[in-house]
UniProtKB/TrEMBL annotation:
Organism, as annotated: Lentzea roselyniae
Domain Bacterial bifunctional deaminase-reductase C-terminal: 18-208
Source lineage: Bacteria, Bacillati, Actinomycetota, Actinomycetes, Pseudonocardiales
Entry keywords, A to Z: NADP, Oxidoreductase
SUPFAM superfamilies per the UniProt record, alphabetical: Dihydrofolate reductase-like
Official protein name in the record: Dihydrofolate reductase family protein
Amino acid sequence: MTDTALESLYEYPANRTWVTANFVSSVDGAVSVDGRSAGLGSPADKQIYLLGRDLADVVLVGAGTVLVEGYRGARPDLERRARLGLPAALPIAVVTARGTLTPELPLFTNTAVPPIVITCAAAGLSGLPADVIVAGDTEVDLRVAVEELAARGLRRINLEGGPTLFGSMVAEGLVDELNLTISPLLAVGDAPRIAHGPVIPPADLSLRSVLRADDVLLMRYRRRNSS
């Protein structure tokens, strides 16, 4: 498919807050190899991963994923964003209920725009070069987090993990769409699946599209009560 066709297929709905999650998994459900998702990647998956960022207003991610994957500031395709009428800046919003983020991380030192840190009062985070949002007392209230992002004009939310944050967002009914890449690998091992969290009634999804790149499948699902 052309870039224009992919942009149309993966575009966000207009004039509303929308959360799209992006994950890659092995055929047997592993979300990582040797602790990192990069071991499951492919050129096709990377293309959709970068597209997801280019179309978003903000990247939402858990602090554990930031630390394991070595997150730095996002570097979107500026030509594409200008053509689509999106601002050049693409902040990373990190969810953490603990004081695990420190100012020397690449997230803060290697970025064109300060990140957003979404935390709770009990974490006691201060002194970070970031826009700090306190959403909750002892745990992060994810509904408040999404509302605070939307209040900043960041309504196209690209959720990149990890499994615990994704599971919690699903449990709160906050995920509208899932872009899932199936890597043609059997990873075995003890890696987690893409969602981990409280036991909830299964969320009903509709399959919106399937793309194939050699042996890689790229699927797009939407929650049925999301319009």
